[in-house]
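Side project, low priority. Logging it here so it doesn't get lost.
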Amino acid sequence: MPDSFEMIVCPHGETGPMNTRNSEGALIELADGRILMAYTHFYERGSDYAAGDIRGKLSEDGGAAWSEPVMTEPTTAHVNVGRLALVRLT
């Protein structure tokens, strides 16, 4: 186990009327070295039962900068997709 950990912070300021809350995120290093961060994006209310999908961001520099969000798992219901976990199989 390392003696210390470096915190990776994704930029704030993305909440508003169509993005009331981001939560339950996961990070994984991809085979090409990029970092993928996926998280629940709520777009109706901030409630745990509100509509939300899974969005993702990529970092090519170890977490210093992040791409714009991309849709990774949409929802067609009036609830959120649920919690997520990321596993790299190869």
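Brief comment: DSSP finds no helices and four strands in the chain.
Revisit when time allows.
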